[in-house]
Specification:
Strand content: 15-25%
CATH topology: TIM Barrel
Helix content: 25-40%
GO biological process, one term: carbohydrate metabolic process
Strand order of the largest sheet: 1-2-3-4-5-6-9
Order of helices and strands: EHEHEHEHHEHEHEEEHE
Structural class: alpha/beta
Enzyme class: hydrolase
CATH class: Alpha Beta
CATH architecture: Alpha-Beta Barrel
Protein name: 5-oxoprolinase subunit A
Radius of gyration: 16 Å
Number of strands: 10
Number of domains: 1
Family: Belongs to the LamB/PxpA family.
Distance between the termini: 16 Å
Largest sheet: 7 strands, parallel, barrel
Organism: Rhodococcus wratislaviensis
């Protein structure tokens, strides 16, 4: 069995840093790098691309709403046409810096509020898929299994990779529990590791209410902005490998 381990990276701005990108890149197989809208600036993005390229880690465009102040976690009113263009703009910016680092962008993963809304809203999902479709090179789209993002990818003939989260609780409907709900974020590295192994080995996860939910995934995410993310990522990787799971990028 083979699975990808991804993490959100490059999410600083100026003198502000959020996560230990270097340490996380020693653990993961794919890096979702912020493209400047919810976080990241040209220097941070370039450094993240260079570090990923040095380690042979796949680079993905972590596109989001234009919301630096809210870290891309606030719902914004953006028309589908504007969202398509803003998504394409972000992919292009990352692609240029990735190419300068001797690598390339191979997939797209929406961030925060865009991820959650596009998973449920086909118009938004289609805007993201349309941007990928218009990009000069083939790209994969990453998102929740069975979501509108998957439907949009299939409609555009784009490869889709279903993703699960090691460090987030799920609802009975198979969506992520809102961060405003107590217990939505899994802080214990052992609990996160156990959830990752269960998702990969059984295709299910226990919801925050105790229900079994089907979650068939090809990639597991650990959030870089969660406190202790490096330790959690290492614990998740060790647990997966101990379960005879081969870790490697899907690209």
């Amino acid at each position: 069995m083979r699975v990808d381990l991804n993490c959100d990276l490059g999410e600083g701005f100026g003198q502000w840093t959020l996560a230990d990108d270097e340490a996380l890149l020693d653990v993961v197989t794919s890096a979702n790098i912020a493209c400047g809208f919810h976080a990241g600036d040209p220097m941070i993005i370039r450094k993240a691309c260079e570090s990923a390229a040095e380690r042979g880690v796949a680079i993905g465009a972590h596109v989001g709403f234009r919301d630096l102040a809210g870290f891309g976690r606030r719902e914004l009113a953006v028309s589908p046409a504007d969202l398509r263009d803003e998504t394409l703009y972000q992919i292009g910016a990352l692609a240029g810096l990735a190419r300068a680092a001797g690598s390339s962008v191979t997939y797209v993963k929406p961030h925060g509020a865009l991820y959650n809304s596009a998973a449920l809203d086909f118009e938004r999902a289609d805007a993201v898929a349309s941007a990928i479709d218009e990009f000069a090179e083939p790209l994969t789209l990453m998102g929740p299994p069975g979501s509108q993002l998957q439907r949009a990818a299939e409609a555009h003939g784009i490869e889709f990779v279903a993703e699960g989260f090691a460090d987030r609780r799920y609802t009975a409907a198979g969506t992520l529990t809102p961060r405003s709900v107590s217990g939505a974020v899994i802080d214990d590295p052992d609990d996160a590791a156990a959830q990752a192994v269960r998702m990969v080995s059984t295709g299910t996860v226990e919801s925050i209410d105790g229900d079994d939910v089907a979650v068939a995934v090809r990639s597991i995410c650990v959030h870089g902005d969660t406190p202790g993310s490096v330790h959690t990522a290492r614990r998740v990787r060790h647990a997966l490998e101990s379960a005879d799971v081969t870790l490697g990028s899907f690209t």
